[in-house]
Design brief:
Blueprint lengths: L2 E5 L6 E7 L8 E5 L6 H8 L11 E4 L2 E4 L5 H11 E4 L11 H12 L4 H14 L15 H13 L5 E5 L7 H16 L4 E5 L11 E6 L2 E5 L7
Parallel strand pairs: 3-8, 3-9, 6-7, 7-8
Antiparallel strand pairs: 1-2, 4-5, 9-10
This protein binds adenosine-5'-triphosphate (ATP) and magnesium ion.
Magnesium ion binds next to α1.
Length: 230
Amino acid sequence: MNLVRTYGDGTARRAALQHVTINLYPGQLVLLMGPSGSGKSTLLAILSGLLEPDSGQVLADDDGQLRDLWQMNPQQREHFRRKHTGFIFQGYNLFPALTARQQLELVLLWGENVSRREAQRRADAMLDRLGLLPNRHKKPAQLSGGEKQRVAIGRALVKNPTFMFADEPTSALDWENGQKVIELLRDAAHQRGAAVLCVSHDHRLLPFVDVYYHLDDGRLEQRPLPVAHS
Ligand SMILES: Nc1ncnc2c1ncn2[C@@H]1O[C@H](COP(=O)(O)OP(=O)(O)OP(=O)(O)O)[C@@H](O)[C@H]1O
Ligand SMILES: [Mg+2]
């Protein structure tokens, strides 16, 4: 709520977000659009607890209690992030030394108390949904751009997060695979009750989402969806 974030100091100081308030609800897929440099990645980083705002609050339901993410101490915030949030980074952020399957296994072994066997089973099930099972033993350098993007998506979704942040998850994909990704995000919201915030430049995604926000030069406004919304 009322989030402000600036970069730089002195005369180079520039506001990336100017009093932005956004609500994310369980079961909703929210699309965030806006020109390059308008502050979209900055907003996602603040909401997910990765980047501290200059002022404003990020209120989140933490097992029935409303808490400000940025009033928690770093350990509490890290715990919250690990337990409740999934993030798909613009530019994948995969571990170069790990195979596709290991990338997914790792978040399960870290974030949840599951056995290696169970982690492997869930990793493979997710890779299968993404059409990546034949690639599961490949490392990022051996994968195409679109395949890397899908591994990053699988890694964010595999632990069934409460909050899901996706920064241009379809940018490296053709329309068919892009549609699959948006359907996965929609399932995460509609079937598993996650609150999903997705950044994209692709207007073709509008019919798939529940709410649409536009960010321009650090100012956010909610926009109506096309009438033929299904
Ligand atoms: N670490 C940083 N230091 C200084 N300025 C930054 C930093 N990160 C972002 N900015 C500036 O803040 C503004 C918002 O950046 P941000 O990455 O949030 O934009 P974006 O909407 O995600 O753009 P894109 O669509 O290109 O990814 C831009 O003007 C950018 O140059
Ligand atoms: Mg960005």
